[in-house]
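sry for the spam today, last one i promise. struct tokens for design, 568 residues
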């Protein structure tokens, strides 16, 4: 098999193979990477995250059927829930990938300036970009379903039925992914065709963030229809007609031979939507490569600033103000930084949307409990960690020499400015979001006390994230593949969940006792003061660095001479 694949690859033109490899590795912006970066290993770690999730789903599938076999009605409910959940998660992952790689399939200024003088046809460039994007989507589909699809097919259908269930599962995942990715490409292509390039670049950032919010909002706020009678009910007709998730749920059951005849119209919507999305994506891509490549060269990417006063807020001294504004503008103007930070913000908003769904489903005031404490603590921590992981990515490595030669202040001043950026861009927004979600909870006194605890926890998380961070934000090269992301991510999530679940009952008990609450506030404030003192003391002897070096392995050759015996 490997030999056949190798022969097929050799048949492809050399230009296509070279461009495909470069576009595949450009899932991360190469200008932001260290010279020692290992992008292939980084992509493997991304696949490892999804494979781990698939394995967890497979184990959960076998655990759900241990012991006494459930009755047929319960198995039918389990099958419906599993199928809907798998389609929802697959569409969420593909939607987030489509937003993260927002303009990866369209040519940019670097592609046009570098490749136009070469004897490369535009169709080769187009096919190479399509193949690279399809490879990333294919990795996600394969990794997310490699174990769970086989496990659920055997549990829900058994051996004979799995022969039909399994192909229907994979065809549905491919069709749902193609529909969602094609819809995103159609929207992006039409906006690129209809708008001037400068306006498109500005609108594109808004559409990108709107895509994050749309996919997460639909996933967490969409009501679930599990009872068979609800599918055929006239009251739910509008929900089924507007939800692509239920389109492809009917699509799957049609392929599996289990779709009721009264729901054939729902499967027909999936076929129609898939055809429109694929056709729209193909047409927009062809038109963009034929009509917009000249616009990329002729029109500037930046709009000249308007005349008049240009006032900027101040955040302390000149150095502190400069770094805070530089951090804010880097996140606002750089697609790469905005997308990576949006990944962590998606987790924050996912938790917030789950909490909002509970609030909207409850009438009247809600008593304060661990159900509010745990989500708000998790939101604060993910916001801080997300910004901390974005800070090392440079906005432009070629401009770092300016920052190197202008370091006129001690390192602790730069650390203080970085701390202000962390508080304004991560801790503050997360706290305000938590406060807005707490308005329906009672009593007000305990809610205010919890928000004070949350603010102190945010300060502590910010100080912990700055330990050993002796860089100016967005000015140090990035070294992907240096750490095992899949193990670090899942380990961090598990440890954080354990800590949040353990801390919530302790805080809830302290809210009802004045002495215990005062002691808790004193301990958190003391921990914050100690962390600030430690960071300031270590920063006095630290030196700012701008390049992420790899760890040098130390190998012992065992060349130690044996001691000589004493001589007379």
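last one done:
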């Amino acid at each position: 098999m490997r030999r056949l694949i190798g022969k097929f690859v050799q048949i492809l033109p050399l230009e296509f193979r070279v461009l495909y490899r470069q576009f595949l590795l450009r899932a991360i912006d190469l200008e932001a990477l260290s010279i020692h970066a290992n992008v292939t290993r980084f992509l493997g770690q991304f696949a490892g995250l999804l494979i781990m999730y698939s394995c967890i789903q497979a184990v959960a599938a076998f655990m759900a059927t241990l012991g006494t076999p459930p009755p047929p009605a319960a198995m039918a409910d389990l099958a419906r829930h599993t199928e809907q959940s798998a389609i929802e998660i697959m569409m969420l992952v593909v939607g987030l990938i489509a937003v993260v790689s927002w303009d990866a399939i369209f040519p940019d200024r670097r592609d046009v300036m570098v490749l136009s003088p070469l004897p490369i046809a535009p169709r080769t460039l187009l096919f190479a970009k399509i193949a690279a994007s399809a490879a990333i989507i294919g990795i996600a589909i394969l990794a997310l379903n490699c174990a769970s699809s086989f496990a659920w097919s055997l549990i829900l259908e058994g051996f004979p039925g799995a022969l039909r269930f399994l192909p229907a599962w994979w065809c549905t995942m491919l069709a749902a992914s193609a529909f969602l990715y094609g819809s995103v490409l159609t929207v992006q292509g039409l906006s690129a065709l209809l708008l001037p390039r400068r306006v498109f670049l500005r609108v594109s950032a808004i559409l990108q963030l709107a895509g994050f919010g749309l996919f997460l909002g639909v996933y967490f706020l969409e009501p679930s229809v599990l009872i068979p009678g609800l599918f055929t009910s006239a009251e739910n007709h509008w929900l089924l007609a507007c939800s692509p998730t239920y389109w492809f749920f009917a699509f799957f059951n049609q392929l599996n031979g289990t779709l009721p005849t009264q729901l054939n119209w729902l499967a027909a919507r999936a076929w129609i939507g898939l055809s429109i999305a694929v056709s729209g994506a193909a047409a927009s891509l062809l038109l963009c490569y034929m009509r917009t490549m000249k616009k990329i060269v002729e029109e500037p990417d930046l709009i000249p600033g308007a005349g008049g006063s240009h006032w900027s807020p101040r955040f302390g001294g000149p150095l502190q103000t400069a770094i805070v504004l530089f951090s804010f503008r880097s996140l606002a103007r750089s697609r790469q930084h905005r997308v990576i930070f949006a990944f962590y913000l998606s987790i924050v908003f996912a938790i917030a949307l789950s909490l909002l769904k509970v609030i909207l489903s409850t009438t009247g005031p809600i008593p304060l409990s661990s159900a509010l404490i745990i989500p708000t603590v998790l939101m604060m921590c993910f916001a801080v960690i997300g910004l901390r992981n974005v800070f090392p990515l440079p906005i432009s490595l070629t401009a770092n020499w300016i920052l190197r030669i202008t370091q006129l202040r001690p390192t602790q001043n730069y650390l203080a400015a970085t701390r202000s950026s962390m508080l304004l861009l991560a801790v503050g927004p997360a706290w305000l979001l938590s406060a807005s979600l707490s308005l329906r909870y009672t009593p007000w006194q305990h809610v205010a006390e919890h928000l004070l605890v949350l603010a102190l926890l945010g300060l502590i998380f910010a100080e912990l994230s700055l330990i050993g961070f002796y860089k100016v934000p967005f000015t140090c090269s990035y070294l992907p593949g240096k750490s095992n992301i899949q193990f670090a991510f899942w380990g961090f999530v598990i440890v954080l969940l354990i800590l949040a679940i353990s801390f919530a009952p302790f805080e809830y008990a302290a809210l009802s006792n004045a002495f215990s609450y005062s002691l808790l506030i004193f301990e958190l404030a003391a921990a914050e003061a100690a962390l600030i003192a430690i960071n300031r003391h270590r920063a006095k002897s630290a030196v700012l660095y701008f390049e992420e070096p790899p760890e040098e392995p130390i190998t012992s050759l065992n060349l130690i001479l044996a001691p000589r015996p004493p001589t007379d």
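Residues 38-301 form one domain. ok im logging off now
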